[in-house]
Amino acid sequence: MEIPGQERIAGYRIIRRLGAGSHSELYLGHADEADANGGAAVIVKVFHPSTDQDLIGDQVSVLTRAAPGSFARLVDLATQPGGVVVLVVERLTGPALPAVLEGRTRIAPGEAVTVLAPVVVALASLHALGFAHTTLSRATVRFQADGRPYVTGLGGLRRLPGFGGRHGQDAAEPGDGASRFDLIRADYARLALLMRGVFDTLHQTDAAARRAEALVAWFEMTATAVPFQPSLDELERRLFAWSPAAAVSLTESATPAPPVPARVDAVAAGSAPQRPGGPPMGAPATVAGAAAGRSSLVLRLGSALERSPLRLAADRVRVLAAARRGPLIVLACVATAATVLALTLMPPSPPAPAAQVPSGRSDEAAPVPSEPGPQRVVSSGEADAPASTGAIAGDDPVRAARALLAGRIGCLAAASVTCLDAFDQAGSAILEADTHAIDTGSSQPDASFTAGDVGELREHSGDLAIVALQRTASKGGDSEPASLLLVKGEAGWRLRQVFD
Question: What's this model's pTM, rounded to 2 decimal places?
Answer without folding.
Answer: 0.55
